[in-house]
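Note to self: the last two entries modelled the partners one at a time, which told us nothing about the interface. This time every component goes in together.
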Amino acid sequence: MAVNGLMRVGEVAIRVFDLDEARRHYGQRMGLIESHVGDDDKLYYKAADEHDWYSLVLRRSDTPGIDYVGFKTLNDADLDRYATQLESEFGIAVRWAEAGAYPLTGRRLIFTLPTGHEAHIYAHKDQNGNGMPLRNPGTIPDEGYIRGMRIVRLDHVLIGGPNIEANREIFVRVFGWATSELLVDHTNEMPLGIFMSASTKPHDIAFLLQPDAGRFHHVSFLLDSVNDLYHAADLIGKYDIPVDVAPNRHGVTRGATIYFFDPSGNRNEVFTGGYVHYPDTPTLTWDTSQLGRATFSHDNTPRESFLNVLT
Amino acid sequence: MAVNGLMRVGEVAIRVFDLDEARRHYGQRMGLIESHVGDDDKLYYKAADEHDWYSLVLRRSDTPGIDYVGFKTLNDADLDRYATQLESEFGIAVRWAEAGAYPLTGRRLIFTLPTGHEAHIYAHKDQNGNGMPLRNPGTIPDEGYIRGMRIVRLDHVLIGGPNIEANREIFVRVFGWATSELLVDHTNEMPLGIFMSASTKPHDIAFLLQPDAGRFHHVSFLLDSVNDLYHAADLIGKYDIPVDVAPNRHGVTRGATIYFFDPSGNRNEVFTGGYVHYPDTPTLTWDTSQLGRATFSHDNTPRESFLNVLT
Amino acid sequence: MAVNGLMRVGEVAIRVFDLDEARRHYGQRMGLIESHVGDDDKLYYKAADEHDWYSLVLRRSDTPGIDYVGFKTLNDADLDRYATQLESEFGIAVRWAEAGAYPLTGRRLIFTLPTGHEAHIYAHKDQNGNGMPLRNPGTIPDEGYIRGMRIVRLDHVLIGGPNIEANREIFVRVFGWATSELLVDHTNEMPLGIFMSASTKPHDIAFLLQPDAGRFHHVSFLLDSVNDLYHAADLIGKYDIPVDVAPNRHGVTRGATIYFFDPSGNRNEVFTGGYVHYPDTPTLTWDTSQLGRATFSHDNTPRESFLNVLT
Amino acid sequence: MAVNGLMRVGEVAIRVFDLDEARRHYGQRMGLIESHVGDDDKLYYKAADEHDWYSLVLRRSDTPGIDYVGFKTLNDADLDRYATQLESEFGIAVRWAEAGAYPLTGRRLIFTLPTGHEAHIYAHKDQNGNGMPLRNPGTIPDEGYIRGMRIVRLDHVLIGGPNIEANREIFVRVFGWATSELLVDHTNEMPLGIFMSASTKPHDIAFLLQPDAGRFHHVSFLLDSVNDLYHAADLIGKYDIPVDVAPNRHGVTRGATIYFFDPSGNRNEVFTGGYVHYPDTPTLTWDTSQLGRATFSHDNTPRESFLNVLT
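The predicted structure of the combined assembly is written out below.
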């Protein structure tokens, strides 16, 4: 059936201290597009090459972190099937938000993952396009549409909590996602990080073993090339955006990366490259004897802050 | 269920005049890896980042062209379902090749598409890896493993024949693939080209309307970057490989491209970029009033040879 | 003395049919910066990373082509030495324009090259910087300063006329420039194209043998990378700018290139790459048996229009 | 006179603990070409796109560091002029090595810079080309000629010692080089780093203020693109080469950079990009209030080891 069911992370909702600061960071500096203005005091952003109306939601709060991860599934009927399977096979309570409860989207199935994160699933979100028409679209939108870091799409999220193997079980059995890579403790093979792909991307979500539930490690945005990654790094330096890890390449996924923080301390990533993954690609395993190489393969040096700072 | 069923074009079998010339072209110059030597007088190649044992098969013949397109499906049980559906819904006769009839692969379902092309579907092919181990793989194989044009993977094929809409019907209803783009006659909206995606790539296969059945337009190989595309073009010029279209960008798929010919006149492409496609991405339509832009968007100039030379 | 004397082509003055059309092409689409407004009905542009106030001058005229090429020399005293040598050794009449006759520049030495082109030499032009301060400049200017094709600098010009070897003689003996490459008729070794470097760039000016004097082949602008070249090509296609040659690589200079035309038919180039040249680098010679490779090395195909259309 | 006189750093002689280890590092891993084998127990390397026979000399020693920096001047007569000026204006004693004393080179003028470094100047070195013919050279050498990190040329050196302003005085007055950038103490404007350009490159040599004379900070090699820089970083990680600073961008020069160490602890750099410099480009000044930005502009974080570890 090719791509079907739960297609991707379609929406990430993050808490920020101050909406004006957040607007300057995500809008003016990163160049995301503020695509919707609601009456709910939240900010709604999309990346340049996404068709859905928004993919990032920012809510004012006194604590940073993640409110929920939203997944888009192909057909509305999938939602009922997921609900049944989550309850019957995993004993997970679900609830529903009716269509329109979240702006411009259909009904949502809402539940809590074993790692303590709220998950939303929806099959419909209105689309306002990618800056180019659907007939004879051309290849590049008008000047000014792509700005800042030249972000293409929301790419993936990394979340932390206990019970990451239970999360995996759900994503494999209910959602049909594949395990692309594992990071295991080399002394006992216990999984510390689980990387899952819904597509031909090397990962769409990852789970990091953490004692506290519901933690947020980072949200990642796709760039087109290493050239654009360097351009993003130039802007990060220009604006004195706090950097966690300057340009490097992950061992896991083989993607090129920069990590930095928003003004509230939430970690962002810009990401490009990585291999083409299929469900028949063998799962790759890294162990902690090679923790440096697994995380930052240019210098094989693990970063303390990267491993332990979550919001 | 994320990626499932018919995952990708996993094998393309092409006819060439001379195996030594073909080996020089595909092996030494393009840098594909001759990965299997059979007793069948065929050449078997794979690209550097593929795990399956081979993806390109070359057979000596007095006429160039394509023997068959092989598709890999995720589970062996899919084959029976496809066979039933092809026969009952489309009246297409199928036959079977037993496991091992083709080297290193499981049983194959074989049938003829409405465009006159032989299609193979298999769920199993032995894997010999991508030059890096499965545990702590690192990010780059040993020097010399990636050679020539630095080809990453077999990417897609474009085939020509009548009844392209019947082909589409099968790929949508039996295989669950999405129509990413259409090229239509602007006078009557008749589809002249149909582009289909099984994944998050902008296309995995395309059908070009042609009066004669079973025609072959090109096989395309994935590169990592526009830099590698220019490097490939430098090699193409160095070796005086006949060029159909020098570096350009397609309107359809937004991919960067070079077209050239193997020594038997079969068209090859190297390809990089293009957008991320999902089944909920709106189908893009190009019409022939913008034929130049749809095909080669840097100069919006259709190429006669590109549109009409097939093998 | 390292770099000294006649440093570079610092100014090119071109004739255009219509200033509004020219402004749309060079300003809005190419992204050059309209840096000076005079009372002379001319347009003055600079590229983003140039310090001098302007490098391109556009004058309304009923015929396209080039008015003059301006060269910047390091010291004002150079001008007197050049004047003396041009008159005494080459019998070339010179004249002077006083400081301020051309906006924001010092006195100019003006004479006609053997190929029939007016040449200006000046040692002073006011500077307004490259969008970044001189103390703690940072690495990237404010968003919006670099626009359109992301042009870095005026790079070089190619002019056509008779007596190209006499031009060379002057540039070697009076100005100390080096001959980086030659294109010769393979039947008799007669130079058809002469490429000269004042720097570590592969060329700063080139002379093309043409029967008519004072002809203009193209003005070239430097880009940072092949990625930016592809981005420029995307814009060229978007705006339906007439393309002479889509992305390719020159044999001569090894630079990556696109040729296109302004609305008046003057040829523009965007250019990136090419080797590092020094005066002790051996002069490379191409002959017309390899004319395709010398001009466009990706397909080794000479373009009729490229060789014969000048303004 | 365009480029003239002292053109570039043409040769760097470095001390290493073990020639076999050095060969593995500089030859097999970095991909420099071992171009000459002498009877002197030294290793001679060149980079792929250099015409001169060698540019890097490695000598076995129990202490790492630099033996001398060799500069190539355009004409042999320059040597006499330099000798006179060094002695008369600067009171610097010079000596001569006769032609052939160093392999494949002409006579050398040898003296000690105020920073305590031995400098060689020569006008002649035999050339063995860049892997491509001088007539109809093409654009890319045969496969295998460019290997490892795909190094194009020796680019520059950074040396440390006292009296860096005296060094500058010599390079300005005797050799005609320009000061492209300065790093000064923000409390008293004292120069701590002086960056000098002999060409259109942003620097050819730099002097770092250090208490001990004759110290070696790094030798830098030019790459073609940020893509190749990432490829080099992938190899550095693969081979566990000790990294000083992973991919970043300098504020000074705006070049993209990686710093790493050879097996003897000598610092190497691969470098790409940076602006085009001319003698009339204003000298840029950084002060120590922006030390992070001046050195590593992606995170504006000075590295202790970078500033203080020299050999």
